[in-house]
């Protein structure tokens, strides 16, 4: 597994990381023992960049990751996030970015993870009620205190990114990016490249849709949030299946799985781009990791660009787009 530097921050991570969210919530049930096996196997394969957040579970995903990396801390670049407020029973209570909340969340995450320092600490969503300078200023204090090594933002607009970076160096910007979510190419990617900020692509497999495994909402497990995702519903689903069909044809011609082709495309978008596909299954982990070795030709990339051009996916990325900083 090759390493990539996130922008000009000096933070090196595996080109492909591991998103751990689905091990605790959102994508149906999961087996904690297998989830830990997936993390251990990822580390064995050279995947050292693990992504979690306090709101996953809620709160239990950080504990799971912390237990899994116990004894292997020096092999891990650990990223977590704060910003979404959730109650003990999973209630959604909005977004917070005030300094007091930043400090408390960091202490809670350190405790749950069982570590002394977080390698990359993201603001999960921007709080529209708090100036970004105040939030990032408090995050910078965590760096000065040695509790956090690098700072990141998730789903932030170009203006917010610039203001945040002027307050304290931002090492990474995380947002959704895949063959069916190419919006970052217009403004986000140019902005972070200008500023020397690394780009972390979450959901690089289109929430699993680009693997070709799902043909209807009924293929999704009970309790899976994708059942209520606009891109998995009605006419949107039909149009998106056409997109996946084109990717499947290209993958078959190359001799790889469609999900591997989709991942390889993300990784081919630049040496400053890191993908964090999530999985809770060993078999899918192995398949995803193999995609990092796939080299696409210029012709392959042109064909993919034609098969899944910007704006070709039907439907919003979330049922509620309001938390996004646009």
Shape: globular
What percent of residues are in strands? 15-25%
Mean pLDDT: 93
How would you sum up the major sheet? Answer: 8 strands, parallel
SSE string:
EEEHEHEEEHEHEHEHEHHEHH
How would you characterize the overall build of this protein?
With 326 residues, the protein is α/β, with parallel strands linked by helices. Helix content is 37%, strand content 16%. The chain has ten helices and twelve strands. The protein has helices at residues 32-44, 60-69, 99-113, 132-144, 158-167, 188-195, 234-254, 258-267, 282-291, 298-307, and strands at 3-5, 12-14, 18-19, 49-51, 77-82, 84-86, 92-95, 118-123, 148-154, 172-176, 198-202, 273-276. It has an eight-stranded parallel β-sheet. It is globular and about 55 Å long.
Short description:
The protein has 326 residues and is α/β, with parallel strands linked by helices. It has 10 helices and 12 strands.
Question: Main attributes?
Answer:
12 strands, alpha/beta, 326 residues, two-stranded antiparallel ribbon, 37% helix
Compile the SSE list and pairings.
Blueprint: E1 3-5, E2 12-14, E3 18-19, H1 32-44, E4 49-51, H2 60-69, E5 77-82, E6 84-86, E7 92-95, H3 99-113, E8 118-123, H4 132-144, E9 148-154, H5 158-167, E10 172-176, H6 188-195, E11 198-202, H7 234-254, H8 258-267, E12 273-276, H9 282-291, H10 298-307
Parallel strand pairs: 3-4, 4-5, 5-8, 8-9, 9-10, 10-11, 11-12
Antiparallel strand pairs: 1-2, 6-7
Helix pairs in contact: 1-2, 1-9, 3-4, 4-5, 5-6, 7-8, 7-10, 8-9
